[in-house]
Write a structure and sequence with these properties.
The protein contains 8 helices and 10 strands. With about 210 residues, the protein is α+β, with helices and mostly antiparallel strands. It has one domain. A 6-stranded mixed beta sheet has the order 2-8-4-5-7-6. A 4-stranded antiparallel beta sheet has the order 1-3-10-9. β4 and β5 form a beta hairpin. The longest helix is centred in the first third of the chain and has 14 residues.
Length: about 210
């Protein structure tokens, strides 16, 4: 595994607004523990009797390298990173677009909950028609928050498929306890960042025809 690739990604992450620290690359044992905790979360039911699934964290864990970072509330990302689905239909999602929020605020058929700057909006007019249909809160993988930062990877052939994922609450607590991160600071969160490394052996070998 290229140490230079890890250092390159770390240098880019440090430029992201709201990133407090980049702790370390997670080992196989830690990754296995995270996956076990995430699967345990899937056995629980939450609001509206909905199930939960953390597709983001599970997708990050499939990458060659997984980094743990801490972030504060200034961390910028593109929503939605959490959606509520009834079968394959979205019946709720995280929204930060001010114009969209003002358009639906106070209208019947919409219910807002959570942070005022990025509330979770439940489409109750859709949800009512899904009675008896299993619903699930799904946490999604997402990209780096800024195009400018993503462009820093464009000329690096070795780094591919970089994504981010929020850990569940139980995983967040596990990571904070394992790495000595204060659990009392409610504004300090954890984030998983994963990417693949293309080794020299995997790089495309020029054909004999192209070498003539």
């Amino acid at each position: 595994m290229s140490k230079e690739c890890v250092e390159k990604v770390c240098s880019i992450l440090k430029e992201c607004k709201g990133v407090c620290s980049i702790l370390e690359e997670l080992n196989n044992s830690q990754r296995k523990k995270i996956l076990e905790l995430e699967k345990a979360e899937e056995t629980k039911l939450v609001q509206f009797g909905a199930g939960i699934e953390n597709q983001g964290a599970k997708e990050v864990l499939t990458r060659d390298v997984v980094l743990l970072i801490t972030n504060n509330q200034n961390f910028e990302y593109r929503d939605p990173t959490i959606v509520l689905k009834a079968n394959d239909e979205v019946v709720g999602e995280e929204i930060s677009d001010r114009a969209k929020l003002e358009e639906i605020r106070g209208k019947p058929g919409y219910f807002m909950t959570g942070k005022s700057e990025r509330p979770f909006v439940i489409y109750t007019h859709k949800l009512r028609g899904k009675r008896g249909v299993p619903v699930k809160f799904i946490t999604l993988p997402f990209l780096l928050p800024h195009d400018r930062l993503r462009k820093g990877l464009e000329n690096t052939d070795e780094i591919n498929d970089l994504i981010c994922g929020w850990p569940s609450r139980s995983v967040d607590l596990y990571l904070k306890q394992a790495f000595g991160i204060p659990t009392s600071d409610i504004q300090l969160g954890t984030l998983l960042v994963g990417f693949n490394v293309k080794t020299s052996e995997k790089k495309k070998i020029p054909s004999a025809k192209n070498q003539r």
